[in-house]
Amino acid sequence: MTNNRRAYLFCSFRTYRRIGLLLAGMFAVLGLMAHPAQAADFPSRPVKLVVPFPPGGSSDIPARLLAQKLEQLWGQPVVVENRAGATGTIGEAYVARSRPDGHTLLVGTSSSHTMGPYTIRDRPYDPVADLRGVTLFAWVPHLIVVNPSLEVASVSELIRLAKEKPGELNYATSGHGSSVHLATEIFSRKAGLDMVQIPYRGVNPAAMAVASGQTQLMFPPAIVALPHIENGTLRALAILSADKLPGLPETPSTTEANLEGYEFSTWVGLLAPSATPDHIVDKIQADVAQILADPAVRQTLEEMSFTPAATSPGEFDAIIQREALEHQALIAELGL
Predict the structure, then answer these.
(1) pLDDT at 40
(2) What's the pLDDT tens digit per position in 255-292?
(3) At what angle do helices 295-303 and 60-74 cross, to 10 degrees?
(4) Rounded to an integer, what is the distance from CA 15 to the centroid of its chain?
(5) Given a cut of 50, is residue 62 above it in pLDDT?
(6) Tens digits of per-residue pLDDT, 139-190?
(7) Beta strand segments in 86-234, E
C-alpha cells in the first residue's frame, strides 16, 4: 500500500471517529433531554388504577378519590378497575404483567402485597421483584368488632369467653393470609385462643357476615366497620392503635384495652410494574404528594379513618421489603 493511500485511510478513520464521537455526544444530550419531555408527556392516554379487591373496601375507597384528583391534574381519564380474587394476588399479577409505562397502576395494600402472596406456593409473580413502589398513600388502623348478640363489651370479656368456649367462636376474614386474617391470628396467639376462621371473598362480605350474625367477630380496617358501627349492627371493642380515632371517641385504644405491644395497621399505596422508568414514577409520586398536601383531601381521608402519608418511591420500597420479610416469616410460622 502506498504512503498516500495509508495517509488517506488514516485521515478517513480520524474523520469518521470524530463524527462518531460527535454523534454519540449528541445522542447522549438528546437522551438526557428525553426524560423531562417524556415525563411532561405523561400520561398520553387514559390511566387505569387496578384495585385487587371488590368495590367498597379499604383500597377501593381511596382509589376513587385519588382517581378523581389525578384526572383533574392530568387532563386524562383515570379509571378504577376492580380485579378481585386470591387475597388480591389476581389484580397484582395483572399489573405486574402490564406494559411498564405508568398507564396501568396498582392500588395495593399490605394484604395484597406483603401478606397474601406468601400463602400461595406457585404464585405467578414475585411481589417485590415484579412491582415497584411509587408512593404510600395512607395508613389504615384495624378494629376488633363483634356482632351485638355476642355478650361481650370489652376485649377482656372476649378473651374470657373464647377461653371458656375453645373452637366455638367464628371470626370472618377477607381471605386466607389477608390482613384481617393475620391480625386475628396474631391476637389469638398472644391471648392463647382457639377460634375458627371463616374466609369470605372480600372485606365487605366479611363485615356483612358479622353484622348479620353469620359469624361472631372480625378484625377489619376501620373504614369498613364504621358504617356498621354507626347503625348498630357491629360493636367495636378496640382500635388496634395507640391513637384514638376521631370517628370513634368512645372506643378504647390498645393501651386503654390492655393490649400493650399489639397494634395492627395496614397501608394503601400506589405501585407500578418494576420496569417502569424512574422519571414516570417520580412524576406520579410528585403529583400524588401534591394531592395529599391539599387540606380538603387530608380532611376527607381522616374523616374516613385513614392517615394520609406520602413517601418517596425509595421509602415505600423499604417499607415493602421489610414487611415482606416479616410477614413471610410469620405466615410460615403460623402454617398459613
Answers:
(1) 63
(2) 999 998 899 999 999 999 999 999 999 999 999 999 99
(3) 170
(4) 56
(5) yes
(6) 999 999 999 999 999 999 999 999 999 999 999 999 888 999 999 999 999 9
(7) 104-109, 131-141, 143-146, 170-173, 196-199, 217-218
Q: What CATH class is the domain 143-239?
A: alpha beta
Closest CA to 323 of 49, 121, 116: 116
The fold adopted by the segment(s) 47-139+266-334 is: D-Maltodextrin-Binding Protein; domain 2 (3.40.190)
In 3D, which of 208, 82, 70, 69 has the Cα closest to residue 145?
Answer: 208
| Nine cell digits for residue 231 | 347503625
Quote the pTM value: 0.83
Number of helices followed by number of strands (H, E) in the chain = 11, 11
Strands laid side by side in the 235-239 sheet: 196-199, 170-173, 217-218, 143-146, 235-239
For cell 387540606, what's the residue?
295
Cell numbers at 172, concatenated: 370472618
Closest CA to 97 of 71, 116, 124: 124
